[in-house]
Amino acid sequence: MMENLREIIEALIFISVEPLTTAKMKEVLTDVPEPDIEQAVRELVTRYESSNGAIRIIQTAGGYVFSTRPVYDPYVRRLLQIERKKKLSVQALETLSAVAYHQPVTQAEISAIRGVDSTYSLHTLLENKLIKIVGRKEAPGRPLVYRTTEKFLTYFGLNSIEDLPSEEELKKLMEEENT
Amino acid sequence: MITTEFEPTPAQDGYQVKLQIFEGPLDLLLFLIKKKKINIHNIPIAVITREYLEYLSHKESINLDREAEFLLMAALLIYIKSQMLLPREQPIEPDVDPRKELVDRIVDYQKIKAACSVLREKEDEMSQIWKRTALTAPFPEEDLDLIEVSLFDLAESFFTLMKRKQSESQRIIKGKEISMAEKTNEIVVVLKERGFLDFLEYLDAQETLEEALIAFFCLLELIKARLVVAIQEQLFHTIKVWLRKDA
């Protein structure tokens, strides 16, 4: 393995504006075998994770990015003069999870699942770029079809859509709640 | 969203649920099912319908859109009850149970609610984490809601500045004279170095009123020549002047 491979990758992640994917790393490090890159990334992540520093590397939306630890949130907010990060409203969150689990999906389908007209919530989510229009359904009226975006993944710290709790996990949660 | 004071008959339950917020009819049904500890796959429609209607009658605020959704569900409940009252020769089979469709919907909805609580936790976690990229904004992103400012906006902010400067500048002894060409050069150099400059701040930093005036005209010329662009990120925000990317 290249002697300073970990440090090279560290530099690449550091300067990236978007989460840096292993595919992108491979483009830069053409002559390094893939398993080596993956191992170096793992080591790098563990090194930050096991240190007591304020910084760590998180995996999100399929890539790696530097982030602060939660303890330092109040100070960062003071620097950026942000009182509290905005949270999604209950309606928006409900609509969003309905889209996430049923995508690709239309407005009528979402409204049926929730039992509530969801036009407005979908509009808000579109504005916030948490969902996107991916086309039209071949059905009467050719309604628009929605999907979640990459920003949806980063927003919730998910690596991919498969990271969402599975049907079984949800069932378990529901049973816990019922008892 | 429905906000209301929901008080089930105290004699029955001995407790009150205040300010319960229900997202919609399914949310309300789910709440009633949990409250009555009902087995979701064998819902006593009569009981749940009574509770449901009671809630509707207790509701104070009326939102017509939402009202329709709640009433639609009430109608569905009564319809299901009537279906179940019809005399049958054989006992009800699970497949033709008139409740089945509604139960499926409630179960589906319950799943979404469970997913919501998971996502909310993740949102909380993420809200305390800051990515290194939080601060970088070298050039306004294309999708930012930018407003290109008009001549009137520029002139207006300039004149307010002039008034302020006028009172200060009386003691300034007339210094070197500066031409428009020199000033234009100076502005372009600053823009090339920094990418942008704050319109008011820049004019305010000029030594004399005369120089500020020249700088203002230079900026207007540059905007006219489409070499730079004056942009406001939002209404009433500071005006920034950017070198055009293609210039």
Question: What would you say this structure looks like, in words?
Answer:
The complex is a heterodimer of chains A (about 180) and B (about 250). By secondary structure, chain A is of the alpha+beta class. Chain A has two domains: about 5-80, Winged helix-like DNA-binding domain superfamily/Winged helix DNA-binding domain (Arc Repressor Mutant, subunit A); about 90-180, Winged helix-like DNA-binding domain superfamily/Winged helix DNA-binding domain (Arc Repressor Mutant, subunit A, Orthogonal Bundle). Chain A contains nine helices and six strands; from the N terminus they run H-E-H-H-E-E-H-H-E-H-H-E-E-H-H. Chain A has helices spanning about 5-15, 20-30, 35-50, 75-80, 90-100, 105-115, 120-125, 150-155, 165-179, and strands at about 20, 55-60, 65-70, 105, 130-135, 145-150. Chain A has a three-stranded antiparallel β-sheet with strand order 1-3-2. In chain A, strands 4-6-5 form a three-stranded antiparallel β-sheet. In chain A, helix 5 (about 90-100) crosses helix 6. Chain A is globular and about 60 Å long. With about 250 residues, chain B is an alpha+beta fold. Chain B folds into two domains: about 1-125, no CATH class; about 145-245, Arc Repressor Mutant, subunit A. Chain B is built from nine helices and six strands. Chain B has helices spanning about 10-15, 25-35, 45-60, 65-85, 100-125, 150-170, 180-195, 200-205, 210-225, and strands at about 1-5, 15-20, 145-150, 195-200, 230, 240-245. In chain B, the strands form two sheets. In chain B, strands 3-5-6-4 form a four-stranded antiparallel β-sheet. A two-stranded antiparallel sheet of chain B has the order 1-2. In chain B, strand 5 (about 230) and strand 6 form a beta hairpin. In chain B, helix 3 runs antiparallel to helix 4 and helix 6 packs antiparallel against helix 9 (about 210-225). The longest helix of chain B is centred in the middle third of the chain and has 28 residues, at about 100-125. The relative contact order of chain B is 0.08. The model of chain B is unreliable at about 1-20 and about 135-145 (pLDDT under 50). The chains are: A alpha+beta (about 180), B alpha+beta (about 250).
